[in-house]
Amino acid sequence: MIVPLTVALGASPAQAASCTTSTGPYQKQVEKFMGRPVDGKQSAADCKAIQTFQRWHGITPTIGYAGEVTWRTMNTINQQRAAGKNPNAAKACPTNKGRIACVDLTRQLSWIQDGAKLVYGPVPVRTGRDKYETRTGSRKIYHRNINHWSTLYDVRMPYAQFFDGGQAFHSVGVSMYNPPGSRGCVNMRTADAKAYWNMLKNGDDVFVYGRKPGT
């Protein structure tokens, strides 16, 4: 599955009440990503477009400022698009283990492969925030609970598949680009978490590598 831009500028939530006139440090990069004229100067139209993106993904403050978090999110989406249908081109995820779920923290991507054959994904994921990083390395799924309830954080974790201590694949109801991230789990969209549930089992390999931007 090629990762799409996830937000159509004409289908946004209600606009924020205020809009900054300040030019951000990533103005040109953000303008290019949004398909705006790339002049490096904040305009009312630029601000509204950036606000739409920020509101869709829960980036605050939602004032249309082309700051670090907004550009970091857009850059991650650019990297996901570039991965296309060959996310393991660099062979960073092992191809000698049969079925394996790969998690690339740098690009915030996950996929399932059998040897070198891609069988699902890549899909966007939301991994651990700073100080709660998703741990890297080779792991195995050891516990599954389709309707798990976290007593630690008092939240539902549907389609939970644990692979490292309390860290698991599971679905969430927020954008995969919602900052700052999870508390270590690999968050997924519901359809992707359900697909992982149907395709994986206890004992299957998981490989996590890279480093999430901002951690």
Automatic annotation (TrEMBL):
Keywords: Cell shape, Cell wall biogenesis/degradation, Peptidoglycan synthesis, Signal, Transferase. GO terms for molecular function: peptidoglycan L,D-transpeptidase activity; transferase activity. The active site is at H170 (proton donor/acceptor), C185 (nucleophile). This is Murein L,D-transpeptidase. GO terms for cellular component: extracellular region. Pathway: Cell wall biogenesis; peptidoglycan biosynthesis. CDD domains: YkuD_like. InterPro entries: LD-transpeptidase (IPR050979), LD_TPept_cat_dom (IPR005490), PGBD-like_sf (IPR036365), Transpep_catalytic_dom (IPR038063). The lineage of its organism: Bacteria, Bacillati, Actinomycetota, Actinomycetes, Kitasatosporales. Residues 1-16 form the signal peptide. One of its GO terms (biological process) is peptidoglycan-protein cross-linking. Residues 98-209 form the L,D-TPase catalytic domain. Gene3D superfamilies: L,D-transpeptidase catalytic domain-like. It holds the Pfam family YkuD.
